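Checked the freezer inventory, then went back to the computational side. Two predictions to log before the end of the day. The first one is the construct we discussed on Monday; recording sequence and tokens without edits.
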Amino acid sequence: MILSSKRIYFLNYISSFFYVIKMLAKLEKLVVTEPTWLTEEVQGVEIAVCNFFEGLDKASHDIDHVYRVVKLAMLIGNSEKNLSCEEAQIICLTALLHDVCDHKFSNSCVRKNRLESMLEDTTEQIKTRVIDAVEKVSWTYETSNPNTHPLALELICVRDSDRLDAMGSIGIARCFCYSGEIESSLDCAREHFDEKLLKIKDHLITNYAKEIGNRRHKIMIDFCAEYDEETSYMSYMS
């Protein structure tokens, strides 16, 4: 089987992540095995997600975004607790699939069928938990259902990781990229910071995400101040 550069990136990340863990464990004379959660079923879903995003021309919501969310979600999960094999699988699958049901790509019926099809080789318990989390990841769902508690671990990890990828330098880049994709103006993109992006920091849940979020929030604050300064000439023209 020929691997795409994106898949090699994903598998290399997983391999390097556990290589570091094993090296640290070796220093402490501990025994660490290869990740048992990275099963053929998980890799099969990852291939399906890759194929799905290859057919889209959305640089703001592409497979690179998905992989960044996977990476952060796994790091957040491991910062919260010693993950079981099943918990790690569910977090990884939820992160891989979190944008497959995005309303920007198709109607709700098509999205649900697509999600179930991609998870057909997983157990019913894993499928149920992943689908439930994926349907609740979005900012729209969160802000429309603010009192939904308690939140499942996989939902917390993927929500936080997805929100972090909308912040900082990468968040700025994605915001203006999306604005171009929908043929919106620069000023509309700037307004999106006030409408959503600058509010994300207060919605982060885990300590790990909050630490990263504070730094990325400051980057956006500084950017907005500079943008407003550089576009202030408009006040003299009106």
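The second is the one RB wanted added to the comparison set:
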Amino acid sequence: MRDLISKGFDHDGVSIKVRRCSFVCDAPARAFISGTKYHTGKNSCSRCTVVGENAITPKEMRLQVRPKGRIVYPSTTCALRTDESFRERFDPEHHNSYSCLEELEIDMVLDLPLDPMHVVDEGACHKYFVTILFDSDYKISPYHVKRVNENMSLVSPYSPCEVARKTRPFTAKMKCTEWRQIRLYTGPVVLINHLSPDRYAHFLTFHVATKILSSPRFYRKYINYAKELLLTFVRNGVILYGNTFCVYNIHNLIHIANDCENFGPMQSFSAYPFENHLGVIKRLSRKSEKPLQQVVKRLAELDHTQKIYNVSETEGFVFKFEHNDGPVLKKLNGDEKQYRQVNFKNFVLCATKRDNCAAKGDNCELLEGNLVVIIENFIEIGSKQFIIGRAFESLTNLYPEPFYSPGLDIYKCENLSGTLQQWPIEKVLFKVYLMPIPNFSSFCSLSIRRHVANLNKLATVKLTKV
């Protein structure tokens, strides 16, 4: 590793230098390789000098169980750790042993980033929803829990193909990708009118902050705003849900934005790609004998045989599934072609039949000029390509004051036009996750994948109203 950082490596005759090395780990692995206290210790925070306290929930006090409670970190103003303070052992209670990583020319604090998959999704988001749905001291009423779960089932058919798992009723053992989908997309919709205004605003601070830090477009411009929101979320969480709410993962939310400053949006240093690849490696092994040799040979075979299909760089999209079913705006001459699907580099758009729900599947997009369109057909006329569909006539703010959802490309969509219209496909800016808002005759649209070619066409909008 020392040679890799100092000298780099050669690949196909090209010398490649490693400018910065980071280690993406969950909390136990990060503590192990750095020789520091594990996440259950009082001095375990890898970013600041906060000292944990023992806390016990009201239910545990009543039942006289778990007498020592759990370690919480209520302070949000402690001094930050630095590479110098780490190596000089300014806080000896934070260290368990010497780490071999200290021999490398890396920052022992900043180059071991917090993993968003475990800290934000499986940690903080899981903790929040378990508290409001299952904790007997702070949960909402059984009626509202039932309605929230019904809303999760209601929006499930509207999940686009880019979403790893369709929504389902809440359980305490949901997967990380499900928690990520809830905090970024479905959470603000399914919780409408089922939380008190204070609690709903508290969740929106978490949703908006993580939405900003997950966006390549917004994270640099609004990173200070995201920091303030996460700090507010942690502090108000203690007020709303007691000291036991501010556990290790909740506390680390106040530090996650600093990693975004160093490494980019949260998916840039997340463990999701590594966790996903574990399944690939597992399928390469056919039997229990010599698994390492099997994996190496299968990878070598794939490297020599697999075909890579790329979308044309000149067009930026590829049409698929030709048909003649329409709808079209005018009678065709016979030289035109109709398609059901178009593949962009970063997402897929599909057209559904008229007798299906117009917003289901992968058939909604945002066009240049702030138009949310439900697609019904793709058509190619000569060298020009068009989409045919219906646009929503009203796009408004989804969030209550002071949040302003259009600043994050999130809209409350109403009044779907009854007239078919046609737009050049080059006007597509990004794909939209469209879902119904329960108990309202309207929809919520959230951007999920951006068409990179049109990234610079978007006008800058303010995140909060002035």
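For RB: Residues 309-314, 353-361, 451-466 have pLDDT under 50 and may be disordered. The chain has four domains: 20-46+94-108, 47-80+113-270, 274-305, 317-457. Let me know if you want it refolded.
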